[in-house]
Amino acid sequence: MTASLAEVVAALEAAYPPALAESWDAVGLVCGDPAEPVRRVLVCVDPVESTVDEAVEVGAQLVLAHHPLLLRGVHGVPADEPKGRLVHRLVRAGAALYCAHTSADVANPGVSDALAAALGLRDTRPLSPHETDRRLGVGRIGVLPRPRPFAEFVRHVAAALPATAWGVRGAGDPDRVISTVAVCGGAGDSYLDAARRAGVDAYVTADLRHHPAGEHLARADVPGGRVPALVDVAHWASEWPWCEQAAGVIRSAFPGTVDVLVSTRRTDPWTVGATAHQPAVDPASS
């Protein structure tokens, strides 16, 4: 029997309960008729033009996205606006859109579990446990199968995640031995202190800003100030491993009934990366 959209949504919300979402977040069904059948689902990080194109091309009746389409309050979705145009395209194609954002960040397993698994971490636990259930929470802490120098670990992270123009950056002693690692899918500089308190050797996250990262590293100069080395990856790349996890939720709930595809289209906004091979300031000019 064909699953209905309502049944697929129920399976997703059992795995990623909306009650876990932050109060500011926008999770749940954006468009779609709960009574309509779902035969194919496309899972992606971002509900953008490219992934909507893909959903239409593959004939998906549901797009499951991590990031919300309509995070801020809106009063309309006119088709001549970028987000309104996507809603209209989905409706015309008979495709629903469901977004699981911070609900999937906090769930167990959730976004950071998928990132930890991609890096091969073992014995994981939450970096910032949920206030009512410490098995849940943001981020994960785990142990590498074998210790490795920080420079090698940064290359390991780059190899484990999809390639982006942003690439992977590391801040720390290249020879420092890394054994315990904290990860946080998405923008995680608000958890720098949590990673430091956990005493891990390295912290992997996305969108690290100059000042918070610099202030974190400066703590190493005070007595007892050993701090985790930092690995900064592209936001999209840090959350893309979750797509296969979420696809597995639907496959397990509807074996042989619902076809689930994971989008491989890179929706990271950065398209060009470059590294200068000369000093930032010409000594001859000073």
TrEMBL record:
GO terms for molecular function: metal ion binding. It comes from the Bacteria. Signal peptide: none annotated. A divalent metal cation binds at residues 66-67, 105, 235, 239. InterPro entries: DUF34/NIF3, DUF34/NIF3_sf. The keyword GTP-binding does not apply. Keywords: Metal-binding. Gene3D superfamilies: NIF3 (NGG1p interacting factor 3)-like (3.40.1390.30). The keyword Metal-binding applies. GO terms for cellular component: cytoplasm. PANTHER family: GTP CYCLOHYDROLASE 1 TYPE 2 HOMOLOG, NGG1 INTERACTING FACTOR 3. Homohexamer. Belongs to the GTP cyclohydrolase I type 2/NIF3 family. This is GTP cyclohydrolase 1 type 2 homolog. It comes from Goodfellowiella coeruleoviolacea. The lineage of its organism: Bacteria, Bacillati, Actinomycetota, Actinomycetes, Pseudonocardiales.
